[in-house]
From TrEMBL:
InterPro entries: FIST_domain_N. Pfam families: FIST. This is FIST domain-containing protein. Residues 26-218 form the FIST domain.
Length: 360
């Protein structure tokens, strides 16, 4: 498999698409990442330039060619793969209505041994979508990796792209089969449990990802008691002290997006009643990342596709290691990393986590 990464920095969308596609004659599959204000126009122009080429995408930021990109258009091209793209509509209410086509596409790709993944971008309702499709993917032996749309403008709706067209309240997906080798998936969690014991969520509203109480007291009160963080500093503390939901020995990271003075925490991932919740602390992330890159290099790699967190990058910037982090992927293989708030890995939606697909 061969990967292409192009960057368009121009303010004018048409010029930026020309920049981002310079040297790309054709591709088996395209991914588009663009600022929200440019995503619809960029998708239409890219679809016109490569008619008939399967494409998915969404709004967000990125890392490519050893640069952190916040306002650029990024075009990622793949050659040497088979692909089936599709859309899951009405993710908030009835994603199951799209399962017939989803299963037909899954069957059409004919997954082999560790050579196929489901790649997706969602506008929200991640837990509902993942619970709908996970059993079918697991039965077929197809892992999932993806991210949530990011950077929506105030008053607008998140959107995803399928084949040049914009969809809201949807999940755009692609089954990708590598004709030149396997696809390996990796997850990097840079946090350790700070809490000495688990706190139990006993007043929650999963539909709005709201956490009211832990251990029978306001969640924010317990968080402040354990971390010593003042109310006005809660959100800025998230890169270092997120929440974590216990999954056996593993922990699924949860970012708090806003709080109120009644002790309520509004999060980027749903928390359910009786979930075991820990307050997390930053671990030795330099060593963790070095070990991840070393494990990836144990197999031949031609391209890295990743999904990262803007909050993790804030942490690295505060610690003055962002430049080294952004450059680190290039030591393994050419890479393109989507940057947003939410990441998906198999049946779990999470925040502040790096997930990677390494193509042989």
């Amino acid at each position: 498999m061969k990967g292409f990464v192009g960057i368009g920095r121009a303010d004018h969308v048409e010029t930026a698409i020309t920049e981002a596609t310079a040297g790309l004659k054709k591709a088996d599959f395209l991914i588009l990442i663009a600022p929200f204000s440019k995503i619809e126009a960029a998708a239409a122009l890219l679809g016109e330039k490569y008619p008939g080429t399967p494409m998915i995408g969404t709004s967000g930021e990125g890392i490519a060619k050893e640069m952190r990109l916040t306002q650029a258009i990024i075009v990622i091209g793949f050659a040497g793969i088979e692909v089936c793209t599709g859309i899951i509509e009405d993710v908030r209410t009835t994603p199951v209505k799209s399962m017939h086509t989803f299963l037909a596409n899954l069957q059409a790709i004919e997954p082999g041994d560790s050579d196929t993944i489901c790649l997706e971008f969602m506008t929200g309702c991640e837990e509902r979508v993942l619970s709908t499709i996970h059993d079918s993917l697991q039965e077929a032996g197809v892992p999932l990796i993806g991210a949530s749309a990011y950077g929506v403008l105030l008053g607008e709706k998140h959107c995803v792209i399928l084949d040049g067209k914009v969809h809201t309240r949807s999940c755009a997906y692609a089954f990708i089969k590598n004709k030149g080798g396997k696809i390996h998936l990796y997850k990097e969690n840079i946090y350790k449990r700070q809490s000495r014991r688990a706190h139990f969520a006993n007043l929650v509203e999963p539909g709005t990802k709201t956490l009211f109480q832990l251990d029978g007291v306001p969640a924010l009160e317990l968080y402040q008691e354990e971390t010593g963080v003042q109310l006005e500093d809660i959100l800025s503390a998230m890169p270092r002290h997120p929440l974590g939901r216990a999954l056996g020995d593993d922990t699924c990271i949860i970012q708090t997006m806003s709080v109120d003075r009644n002790g309520v925490m509004f999060n980027g991932k749903a928390i359910y009643e009786n979930d075991s919740i820990y307050i997390m602390d930053v671990d030795d992330y330099r060593q963790i990342h070095e070990e991840l890159l070393a494990s990836i290099q144990a197999s031949p790699v031609s391209f890295l596709l990743g999904f990262d967190s803007a909050n993790r990058l804030r942490l690295f910037a505060e610690d003055d290691v962002l430049t080294d982090y952004v450059a680190s992927f290039r030591t393994v293989a050419p890479a393109a990393i989507f940057v947003g708030d939410g990441q998906q890995f198999n049946n779990q939606h999470m925040n502040q986590t790096l997930v990677l697909a390494a193509f042989e």
